Amino acid sequence: MLKPLLLLTLIALSVATTCLAQDRPASNSRKAVTLYYKAEEAAQARDFNKALAYLDEAIERDPKYADAYLKIASLHRAMGNKPEVFENLQKGLSLKPFNAGLMNSYFDLADLYFERGDYENARKNFEFFLRGKPRNGRMTDFARQQIQSAEFAAEAMKKPVSFNPVRLPSNVNRFELQYFPSTTADQRHLIFTARAGHRPDQDENIFVSQYRDNQWSPPSSISPAINTSANEGAATISGDGKTIVFTSCNRPDSQGDCDLYISFRSGDEWSKPKNMGTVVNSKAWDSQPSLSADGRTLYFTSTRPGGIGKEDIWVTRLNEDGSWQKPENMGEPVNSKGRDMAPFIHVSGSTLYFVSDGHLGMGGLDVFMTKQDNKSKWGAPENMGYPLNTHADEGSLFITADNKKGYYSRQEMTEAGAATIQLYELDVPENWRSKVKSTYAQGRVYHADTKKPIAAVVQLYDVNADSLVQQVNSDKVSGEYTIVLSDGRQYGLYVSAPGFLMNSLHFDYTSRKSLDPVALDVYLKPIKSGAAIVLNNLFFDTGQYKLERESKTELDKLITFMRQNPSIKIEISGHTDDIGSDADNKVLSERRARSVADYLRSNNVSKDRITSVGHGESKPVKPNTSDENRSQNRRIEMRVL
């Protein structure tokens, strides 16, 4: 990861002014001073090696010659030799009392201390810089920010977060560089970016590893349709594993430096990726995408105009017609004047993780999390603490749907001194977990008669809010679908396809203590005379026939179904359990069925297309021997006439 561009600019300013700010070089050795001036002449002639030789000789004459050390530091800075800059700044400044004219040297040394995680010495030298009353506002602001970070870091290190990252096995970490890990909602597929090495001919590609027999398989290229000789990376995959968005740079159809591309999976095949177009992509750098669980909301990083900092996080949403909306800047408090990057939206949609150097942290890019409140507003970002965050730049973090496992990458040095990036798995600490716990429902959609897979629309509604939470499509080849369920909600699940009766299911997670995955195959019945379904998301108080507010989603789905199929007629039938008298149950079932029919009629469904009937307790689907069975017998059905 690169250092902030602002800091590079500030260091360049510092290089240009350090020598000018110093007093006349002083030494007890006249010969050492003479050698110092010869070194200056050689440096002006761009003969740095000769200049360094003069200065080394000067130090031999006077080992406490502070200005010689500072001059050596400035020459090594120009040559890009950071270790030598650090060593000589330390020596030179330690031999001098505070001098406001050396404030830029204090700044440089403070920054180098910060790079090494030496927060106390970094703080002291930034304070020396500020004592010099600098006129450069950007350098002043940066120094104050780093002092705050140093103080924050010192406290964070006293209260480390307990987590035990474990490097993924070598059959997964088989590249020199691998990063941006993520999984599907069922955690059966691990997606990441990798490259064999640092050489330009070793390009980035997207790989997938499958979880089989309690271990990750060796990764393979995700698809020849996706990976090319260009760089493909920083990928995100939808919860059902059927939509992937990734970054690629300098393709013939690029809008800018790097663009976002999208591909869809049918069966085992990925479609040819498409550039997401000028609405989503800009002429600037667009990268690091993160899809919501249903693939209908996309967060990403961009340097486009209109942001708050250099890199900002933006968000776009999918329209009903399949087009994407114009991206919006997430704004404050998420985005800052610094760099805000690598967003990851948890499948629950309630918590966003990202990296930033613009919020209070430990230096460089730290990992932060922000949570939505009850009004869908993002809260102030929280630093995720030490030792996940350090003085170095951190990468992205991914947390699974159940909040139990996390994946991230870490830069390391090999024994040979080469930089490598490895993937790690961790057990997620409680305070890092998403605000909302999630699981998933997974299965296949079949034709009820032929038992063949169907391409269907699977929609998940929050029936309390009457709002669409997720929408996915079952695979047209296999019929597979995956949809995420989160705690604290009462869901209506609707599966529909042209020519079929919809299937409505109910999930109540408002009081569940555990969230286990749900295996659920769905069979859709063709629309024909006699075909019937249970309407599972219609609600009545005990012994009452007035429809409760939570029934609106199902009722409106019925209205849509009737409008899409204008030639059919239906019967709405009510059924009860065996509690109470036969006569009372018969009346109650009739009134409940009539309430549904009346709602349809009041919403412009022709009354001659709807009949209603009550069967009381006469047609149970299960013996009335338990509460569970009785709840299934209390039902409203729709039958095609």
List the SSEs and their pairings:
Layout: H1 5-21, H2 30-44, H3 48-61, H4 66-79, H5 82-94, H6 103-115, H7 119-131, H8 137-158, E1 166-167, E2 177-183, E3 189-195, E4 205-212, E5 215-216, E6 220-221, E7 232-237, E8 243-249, E9 258-266, E10 269-270, E11 274-275, H9 277-280, E12 286-291, E13 297-302, E14 312-317, E15 328-329, E16 340-345, E17 351-356, E18 366-371, E19 382-383, E20 397-399, E21 405-413, E22 419-427, E23 438-447, E24 457-462, E25 467-473, E26 480-486, E27 490-496, E28 503-508, E29 518-519, E30 522-524, E31 532-534, H10 552-564, E32 570-575, H11 582-602, E33 610-614, H12 627-633, E34 635-640
Parallel strand pairs: 23-29, 23-30, 32-33
Antiparallel strand pairs: 1-22, 2-3, 3-4, 4-5, 4-6, 7-8, 8-9, 9-10, 9-11, 12-13, 13-14, 14-15, 16-17, 17-18, 18-19, 20-21, 21-22, 23-26, 24-25, 24-27, 27-28, 31-34, 32-34
Helix pairs in contact: 1-6, 2-3, 3-4, 4-5, 5-6, 6-7, 7-8
